[in-house]
Amino acid sequence: MSPPDILRQYPSALMAWRNLGRNRVRTALAALGIVIGVVAIASLGMAGAALQYQATENLGGLADEVTVTAGEDNPDGLTETHVRKIRQVSTDATVIPIKGDRTTVAANGEEVVAGVTGVTQASALYDAGEGEVPSRLESGAVVSSNLASELGLDVGDPVEYGGQLYRIRGVIQSSGGFGGGSNTLVLPVSALADQPTYSRVTLITDGGDAARELAAAVDARLNEREQVVSATTSAAALEQINSFLNTLNLALLGIGSISLVVASVAILNVMLMSTIERRGEIGVLRAVGIRRSEVLRMLLTEAGFLGLVGGLSGAVVSMGVGFVIFEALVGDPMAALAWSSSRYLVYGVGFALVASLLSGLYPAWKAANERPVESLRG
After folding, report:
1. What is the pLDDT of residues 156-193, one digit of tens each?
2. Alpha-carbon dihedral of residues 255, 35, 345, 341, nearest 10 degrees?
3. 142 phi and psi angles, rounded to 5 deg
4. pLDDT tens digits, one per residue of 9-31
5. What is the DSSP pairing of strand 128-131 with strand 110-118?
6. Mutual orientation of helices 11-22 and 24-59 as an angle, nearest 10°?
7. At what angle do helices 11-22 and 292-329 cross, to 10 degrees?
8. How many whole angstroms separate alpha carbon 352 and alpha carbon 359?
9. Which of 111, 146, 222, 353 is the most exposed place for a label (fewest CB within 10 A)?
10. What is the per-residue pLDDT for 180?
């Protein structure tokens, strides 16, 4: 059944549809404005959703971690005594003391500056992309995928640090997002034995709530008089990032809605011109007994058709744009179909429909309330 066949069951809607077809160019231009507005709103919203998706994917797995570093009243760093006190508080968490340094790593004629991490429980922090990441790293080395790529390193190749050679046992799986491109050389803690203190202690808990409670417990236990340590959680950082991205998304939607407001003004102009041109026709309808409410409904239906057709067309275009955005930012175009992203298509269509109806309200009210005699006089 074609749209005209369906509309024949609703005379006012059928007349509205035919009126729009009288001047197709003007109707198409008005609908094009709606399409542009919907694409602006939906595309910007989906871009924000893609950024939030990426942030959650990369940081969500860190929400159960607590990072303890030296406090502002502790310039000497974290000692074995501090680590022992942290272990006493963290009875249900995995405690990972870490030493840090920076060095220049050379191989195959290339040199890059890399961060050095001295840790024993390497597998608790890193996942292996190639080779293995030992649960207890007491010999050999593990390198980040970025460092391996830049220097052309493979599992089994030697790297030098502090005058000693370490054989690469594994390459860390790339996170592909924030921080995923850093150059990192992971060595046994014994390789950094000349450093008397730890740069940080990572605590791995069962979840975000447990991480917040443990951070508070560590702060209460070690900072009784002075700020000896600083305990922070990634959960708090993730919440802050999500809050920032939500604010950014609202700002983007505000910018996109401006184009839809401009399109609404164009629809208002189209509807005013249409009612002026059809003044005599509307006068005849009123003279033969058509009620004001029916004229009002017919003209509002015209505005609604413009918003609906433009909104749906804009949603189809925006869906294509969303696939491109998610492919570029996330690497998975089908993630654009998730409700957190596709809801902006619904918002765009709804906004277009409401804006069109509001734009058509005044022309429809004016035409419906004009006296038939005055309309027929022109």
Report:
1. 999 989 888 999 999 998 754 444 458 899 999 999 98
2. -60
3. -130, 140
4. 677 777 778 877 777 888 888 88
5. unpaired
6. 100
7. 70
8. 10
9. 111
10. 45
Torsion over CA of 286, 292, 297 and 300, rounded to 10 degrees? 90
- What is the residue type of 114? A
- pLDDT for the residue 178: 44
Query: Can you tell me which residue has the tokens 């709606």?
Result: 34
- Site of tokens 């058709």: 305
What share of the chain in percent tops pLDDT 70? 92
Distance CA 78, CA 57 (A): 31
CA 173 to chain centre: 23
CA proximity to 85, closest of 282, 232, 224, 278: 224
For residue 347, what are the β-bridge partners? Answer: none
Half-sphere exposure for 346 (CA within 13 Å, toward CB): 7
CA angle 342, 346, 351 (to 5 degrees): 140
Instruction: Label the pairing between strands 94-107 and 200-204.
Output: antiparallel
Of 11, 201, 217, the C-alpha closest to 124 is 201
171 strand-pairing partners: 130, 143
CA atoms within a 13 Å half-sphere pointing along the CA-CB vector of 16: 23
C-beta of residue 294 within 8 angstroms of C-beta of residue 8: no
What H or E segment, with its residue span, contains residue 170?
strand 164-172
Q: What is the DSSP secondary-structure string of 86-126? A: HHHH-TTSEEEEEEEEEEEEEETTEEEEEEEEE-S-GGGT-
Residue indicated by tokens 């505005």: 303
> Model confidence over 125-147: pLDDT tens digits?
888 889 999 989 999 999 999 89
Task: Work out the number of other CB atoms within 10 angstroms of the CB of residue 267.
Answer: 26
91: tokens are 């009875």
Task: Name the strand (E) or helix (H) holding 66.
Answer: strand 65-70
Beta carbons of 34 and 352 less than 8 angstroms apart: yes
